[in-house]
Amino acid sequence: MKVQNREMRPPRSSRAAGDAHVAGSAVLSVAGLSKTYADGHRALDHVDLDMRRGEIFALLGPNGAGKTTLISIVCGLVRPGSGSVRVAGFDIRSDYRETRSRIGLVPQELHTDMFETVLHTVRFSRGLFGCAPDEAYLEQLLRDLSLWDKRNNAIMTLSGGMKRRVLIAKALSHEPELLFLDEPTAGVDVELRREMWALVRRLRERGVSVLLTTHYIEEAEEMADRIGVIHQGRLVLVDDKASLMRKLGRKQLTLHLDRSLDAVPRALEHWGLHLSGGGAVLEYHFDASDESACVPQLLRELARTGVEFTDLNTRQSSLEEIFIRLLEADR
Ligand SMILES: Nc1ncnc2c1ncn2[C@@H]1O[C@H](COP(=O)(O)OP(=O)(O)OP(=O)(O)O)[C@@H](O)[C@H]1O
Ligand SMILES: [Mg+2]
Prior knowledge:
Blueprint: H1 12-15, E1 26-36, E2 42-52, E3 56-60, H2 67-74, E4 82-87, E5 90-91, H3 96-101, E6 103-106, H4 118-128, H5 135-144, H6 160-172, E7 178-182, H7 190-205, E8 209-214, H8 217-223, E9 226-231, E10 234-240, H9 241-248, E11 250-257, E12 274-276, E13 281-287, H10 291-305, E14 309-316, H11 319-330
Parallel strand pairs: 3-8, 3-9, 6-7, 7-8
Antiparallel strand pairs: 1-2, 1-4, 4-5, 9-10, 11-13, 11-14, 12-13
Helix pairs in contact: 4-6
The structure holds adenosine-5'-triphosphate and magnesium ion.
């Protein structure tokens, strides 16, 4: 997929005159949303979520957490239980057509008409939303997704990664302002994953808001402005990525000692240090927010105790470690 640095026009709806939305208002507003399926399973439990215009929001959660259910409700594929959902200020129930035309969905499951050609499928999809034909836009879209050469091929003749890109082209065929990507890179190779990330960033540059679900923490870390963690139908946390990493992040200080120790000296016991590497390495785990206070103090106490080191380094805990700790705390 070529991701060129070409000027892209803003989404169709934000160019429309007399639009109901106001710049800067929430593109998606979910309030008190709950959903219980017919078998009694409560898939969503009082979910509140506002998405800002032009942001990339990553929804993280284990299998069965409710991610697809949430997306499906916003897109009108699953009936909401209680609560309200608005897209660009329009209610998904009373203004269904208005909200649906503003949304693009790349579903988790790959299913599309395998016998149709790429171009026909994408053109048809645009028509379904009542958009005027625009062959130039479709050509640009397919070129952006490196599908132009395959435009006359039947979809069944494409590789898995190409089929996924066709789904993205379909989702963007009507120039939506809010794009849902439900696990866009599951089963996709590393190169295509990186290309998809670049595509998402470019969409954001032209004002499209993106909500993506993912199991790949690296993807959220790489892409998202904000991250939401959903667990057993409850949105347990929503925060800016940077502040999430700062607030919940842990750090590890590793000291390579000059001389091996048999045990942590008694005078240092209150630090909760961990001795490893046959006594040659001392590790200290601490909250990232405490760094400036505690690390200099520890180093002073080490010097007083006569523990010398040849090297030291610190490591920030990854989003993955944060995520696992959060879910454990929510059990
Ligand atoms: N049509 C349905 N009828 C009954 N239960 C359902 C239905 N669809 C989903 N569920 C249940 O609702 C819960 C949430 O499912 P959902 O597909 O939203 O999870 P998810 O977070 O998208 O998971 P994954 O990461 O595996 O895609 C699961 O327990 C699932 O079994
Ligand atoms: Mg899902």
